Amino acid sequence: MTSDMTREKPRLLSKRVPIVLLLLLFCAVSGCARKRTAVSNLPSPADPPESVHRRAIRADIPAVTRRDVAILFSSAPSYVDVVTELRKLLPVQTYRLTLVDVEAENLPRMLDSLRRPGVFVFAIGLPAARIARDQLKAPIIFAQVFNYQELLVDGRTVRGVMTMPPLDLQVQDWKRLDPRIQRLGLIVSPAHTNLIPQAERAANAVAITLKYQISNSDRETFYLFKRLVPQIDGLWLVPDDRILSPTVLRELLSYAASHGVRVCVFSDALLQWGAFLSATPTPVDIARTLRRILQTITTEGTNDLPTLTPLSEVLVRVNMQTAGRFGLTLSQRDSWVVRGEE
User: Fold this and answer.
1) Strand partners, 335
2) Do 261 and 254 meet the contact criterion of CB atoms below 8 Å apart?
3) In this structure, what are the phi and psi dihedrals at residue 249, rounded to the nearest 5 degrees?
4) How do residues 171-224 score in pLDDT, each as one tens digit?
């Protein structure tokens, strides 16, 4: 019996050895894994201490919040041109941009999506500005709206861009093109009499006398113009649909051509009706000015921001045929941009 037990013990030991080896191997592997994990959490010898510090700082910096901006517009080409330029100035890294065509069928749904805190609204043109005023509570920054007074609402942030390019740039270039001009006429509505002193200063700076009238309707505008004709060489038209209509514009421009009066208009389309030159804002300048207003509102508030911010350049186009009828010899260029100080 004893010899049998003695012979059995080595067999039992031989069975335990592999188990012990496996346990030792498992412990060794586990220990190495813990060491490797610990090592991986330490900086690499190739990483200098300042590199590790920079990574730690970047991890603590919160993500930049994009400014929430909507652009409301209708499909008129002049409005679309401004929207195109404005989009270039609002990069996606900084702005969360929503485009809203106010003539689209999905307008109600788009407006609903904008009824949230923190939205700023650009409104291009009067139709878009009216919708922004009536349907949204957000701050409004408008452009290409001449009769803007109806947009001003108590308790609302409403600011805009002047519709007419700088008057001094207009008259300076007019004088350069036509040195013989000495007397200009200006007709405005009661809501825009503030243009009179601005126009007087601009005209006087280039030795031109300004004569002005105040009109209350389109027919009265034509009547006042005919009274002014013997006293002026040129007429400065403003884009005021309260005192102008397509019918009166045609009659006025025809009468001016037959009586030797050069007319500066506010739209290139009126050149084909016989106007001498047009002075219009550039889409790029409008877009730059809109963005500048937004930046001022968000960083400095509105205390020192005027209701209307002036533009800084004007696009001049000349009707070469009309210029020839007035005996003016001009270069072959029919359009150019005149820039002032921003």
Assistant:
1) 317
2) no
3) -60, -45
4) 999 999 999 999 999 999 999 999 999 999 999 999 999 999 999 999 999 999
The verdict on domain 67-161 having CATH code 3.40.50.2300 is no
Sheet containing 335-339, strands listed edge to edge, beginning at the edge strand earlier in sequence: 209-214, 183-188, 234-236, 262-265, 277-280, 313-318, 335-339
Measured between alpha carbons, how far is 301 from 293 in angstroms, rounded to an integer?
10
Contact 246, 253 (CB under 8 A): no
Superfamily of domain covering 167-280+313-339: Response regulator (3.40.50.2300)
Spatial neighbors of 56 by CB under 8 A, at least 6 apart, are none
The first and second tokens of residue 262, run together, are 């050069």
265-311 residue pLDDT tens: 999 999 999 999 999 999 999 999 999 999 999 999 998 899 999 99
Residue span(s) of the chain under CATH 3.40.50.10490 come to 67-161
Residues 38-57: tens digit of each pLDDT: 333 333 434 444 444 444 44
